[in-house]
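User: quick one, fold this
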Amino acid sequence: MPRRSADLPLFLITAFALSWLAALPIWLADAPIGSPIFTVAGLVMMFTPTFGVLAVWLYGRSRGEPGTSAREWARRTGLTLGERRGRTLGLLAAAWFGIPVLVAAAIALSAAFGLLSVDLYGLSLFRQGLPRTGQGQVALDPTITALSQVVLIFLIAPLINSIATFGEEWGWRGWLLPRLMPMGTWRALLVSGVIWGAWHAPLTLRGYNYPELGAWAAPMFVVFCVAFGALLGWLRLRSGSIWPAVIGHASLNGSGGLIMLVGDVAAPPHLAVAGITGLVGSALIAVLTAALFRFRPVTPPAPAAG
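Assistant:
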């Protein structure tokens, strides 16, 4: 059946307009990265793609479009576990534990290429950020705290973060990627990744993720979003469900800061180059994703509402 020409603009306008609205307090208050305003605005932003999906759904239902029943919409946008639940659960587990391993591999490669100085013994960069006593001494044991962070990254963070990453993934991989699939798989992955990266502009134009780049962080993050979005796209297409992508995204958000735990305060990491969100990480993700598509092919899903 023919697709509606208005669904894509409606989705994009809703998601982008609401993202800028959510980030408006950051710009009005000139809030720095890491401030409470910045954190809350970023969290609210993550749910704006879901409002885009809902806008398209409600528009379709108001016009009596086929495929907009709640059950069919949930299936087509990946809210179910897909046709092969065992595969989906396996991919969910792989995303949960595999993404932190990928993050660690990007750190190791960055160090091996001489692009990152690590301090595994002293944890000097991590130690610098710990709270201190009145005498200027670190109030917490750095080793115990670091180990606690690692346990949190692998076991708990993906579950906690998945609430917010669902807000994004239902939009980007649940609805948008299938909607773009008639373009061809790789074009759909590229375009959806660029859109995803551009949507972050209210934050990245202020240097988010790459403080050393300032506003140039915006195009830099698009590069990462294309690479990581393709990996999340493979999880979505391979499973027929958004849940592995939700967990993969949540796991990345929980483990992406691992580089700051092992870094050297004498030579802080250049995040645009080293680590999972740097060029090294994007290249590593791209190679892995290409191999997955080559050896574990996918079946494109039907776009929601036609």
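User: anything notable?
Assistant: The chain has 13 helices and no strands.
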